[in-house]
Amino acid sequence: MLELERVTLRAGATPVLDDVSLSVGQEIVGLVGPSGGGKTTLLRVILGLTAPQAGTVRIAGRDVTEGARILVPPLCRGLAVVFQDLALWPHLTVREHLAFVLGGRLPRAEREDRIQGMLVRVGLPTAASRRPGELSGGERQRVAIARALVGEPRAVLFDEPLSNLDVAAKADLLDLFEGLVGAARLPALFVTHDPAEAARLCGRLVVLEHGRVVQAGTIAKLRAAPASAFVQRFAADPAFDRRGEIAVPAAT
Fold first, then answer.
1. Structural domain total, the chain
2. 96, part of any domain
3. What pTM does this model have?
């Protein structure tokens, strides 16, 4: 479980995050909202890169941030993140990207097995010796998801990871995300502006506007009683009708 309880962050008198509470169980929850609404800042707080003024961040039942105190540093939180720009190092091979995450905490043979097994799972079984510049955009995205999951994280965060890809590549990677994250039963928070992505992956949505959670729940709930004009527009997108609703038994 990934939990935030009454997280508040202000820049002067301006609220960046305003009393934000949410929880993510073994599911993929979509985090949506207008640009500048606080989504990326919220991810930074979860990761421990930014300290709020108030509130608690809890991972697997353990408080990792309490008010302005970072109780557990970013590298010790057991979180994985896939950024929009992927943050791949051009001088490292695919294998070296994954090995960097694992470090020296596994015997060499086990580490190599873990790396090759993950590359097979993401559809890149022969790419270990290649560098990012030798890969397509979709292949680089697969490296980023492999790097995120190879260390067996407690939860995974996605910050608009598909925004730079074409429609065909997006469709393939949405299937990959759902298969890998769903099979691992990981708590996952997926930031997106794309209703089609949210429809494909997310059983619940959390809508963040002006730093505040204005509504959370299934698409059916958001459509039945939208809390804002943004919620009404987003939930009305026909992508949700084409996909249908993914039932996830989680509290909203």
1. 1
2. yes
3. 0.86
